[in-house]
Amino acid sequence: MRRVDTGSPLAPSLWAATAEAAVHAPPLDASKRVEVAIVGAGYTGLSTALHLSELGIDVCVIDANEPGWGASGRNGGQVIPGLKYDPDELVRRFGPRDGETIVSMAGGAADTVFDLIRRHRIACDATRAGWIQPTHSTSLIGTLHARARQWEARGAHVELLDRAQIGERLGTEAFVGGWVDRRAGSVQPLSYARGLARAAIAKGVAIHGATRAQKLERSADGWRISTAHGPVIDARQVLIATNGYSDGLWPGLAQSVIAANSFIVATRPLPADIGASILPGREVASDSRRLLLYFRRDAEGRLLMGGRGPFREPRGASDWAHLERAARLLYPQLKEVEYEYRWAGRIAITRDFLPHLHLPAPGLTIALGYNGRGIAMATTLGKHLAAHLAGPTHGLPLPPTSIRRIPLHALQRFYISAGVAWYGLLDAMS
Fold first, then answer.
1. Angle (nearest 5°) at CA 54 between 51 and 58
2. What is the H or E stretch that residue 412 is in?
3. Are 63 and 208 in contact (CB under 8 A)?
4. Is 418 helix (H, G, I), strand (E, B) or coil?
5. List of residues 6+ apart from 376 with CB closer than 8 A
6. Which residue of 33, 112, 289, 338 pairs with 234 in a disulfide if CB–CB is 3.0 to 4.6 A?
């Protein structure tokens, strides 16, 4: 078994072990002035920087570690359009005009990802075979089929699946039905993040790793970012894009989301006879439970299984045992297969399960909270954020909200545990 990835950029998660080479992102060695400064070199920051560079805007990105070090390089690699809420619910919440704008943005999010991959020739094992959402509960089939029809009514290529069809697509008899969204796909997520960084650098973007933003304050003509090791950045506008790794740079931001750990295991490349029976079409999948499991194959034929785990940082292989059990329950043929990688990363969960855009002061923009759909949503929001930062005439696709601290945030690990138990009970009863 490989060593556990507990957060060090050197620890070998599957993605760290197999990614394209890291980009050259040296620490900031001298103070500078730019038009836009971005804190955070994950998907949001990198996509925004790349799109800003295409608009001719001078931009600098800094990160406390390196591009893709956080959840952008540790997630399951599933590129899924849409949000947690169905299209009709978004229209009900935001009204016909704004609601349909949000639906269109979220529905086209995967298109943004694969278009960038194509245009910038990003090597990241991109596959667009679709996303399957299965259910183990007959009572939920109607809900899933209604979701599929809502997207179909808006032009999405979807298919409804019965028990036999879902079993054939997934290679397991554990589910009773579901649907498939053909807009979705998968990438090697760290390679994708590094590819965005490489494309941005080629367009003139300065990216500096090992450069922690320690203080953010107003200046005479914008903002000043003081870094932990000395140099400062003066910028007319600043974007904070730190998501689940947000700290105290801006008051209350870290306390406005739950930074929950998502855990993933990966088998060794499966033998041909076993591999042929599991996700033969190379779709990605995540089930309909509140405490969902998500799973896929990688380019070398491994099976990845992901889901929630302890809130604390992992301590050993036993913290992933529940995922290995779940994989064997779905696929008994994995009984003798060894697991080669185990790792985790923090995703930002918001109280309303929607991404949050904040404009807390003139010239300061904050984006975070993708609730497990960060590849597609963060990338596409980056395109819209770039347009917003480039000029005041461009509106944002989501209405900005104020930063609201989650009550008793310091106790989050305790009520997350209680919530996990409650949702587990609801899943068992459904």
1. 90
2. helix 412-429
3. yes
4. helix
5. 79, 80, 81, 109, 110, 112, 113
6. 33
Dist. CA 88–CA 151, nearest whole Å: 9
Q: Are strands 158-161 and 303-308 parallel, antiparallel or unpaired?
A: unpaired
Q: Which residues of 186-214 are buried (b: 16+ CB within 10 A; e: fewer)?
A: bbbbbbbbbbbbbbbbeeebbbbbbbbbb
Cα–Cα distance between 10 and 419 in angstroms, integer? Answer: 33
Pick the CATH number of 14-125+186-257+348-404 from 3.50.50.60, 3.40.50.10740, 3.30.2270.10, 3.40.50.1100: 3.50.50.60
37 contacts 235 by C-beta, under 8 angstroms: yes
Beta carbons within 8 Å of 380's beta carbon, 6+ residues apart: 47, 105, 106, 108, 109, 112, 113
Q: Which residue has the tokens 């801006």?
A: 250
User: Would the pTM count as exceeding 0.90?
Assistant: yes
**One digit per residue, pLDDT tens: the chain, 430 residues?**
333 344 444 347 999 999 999 999 999 999 999 999 999 999 999 999 999 999 999 999 999 999 999 999 999 999 999 999 999 999 999 999 999 999 999 999 999 999 999 999 999 999 999 999 999 999 999 999 999 999 999 999 999 999 999 999 999 999 999 999 999 999 999 999 999 999 999 999 999 999 999 999 999 999 999 999 999 999 999 999 999 999 999 999 999 998 888 899 999 999 999 999 999 999 999 998 767 899 999 999 999 999 988 777 888 888 999 999 999 999 999 999 999 999 998 889 898 999 999 999 999 999 999 998 999 999 999 999 999 999 866 678 999 999 999 876 555 555 455 444 433 433 343 4
CA–CA distance, 46 with 68 (Å, rounded to integer) = 9
Q: Locate 208 and state its tokens.
A: 């500096």
Greatest distance between any 2 Cα atoms in the chain: 66
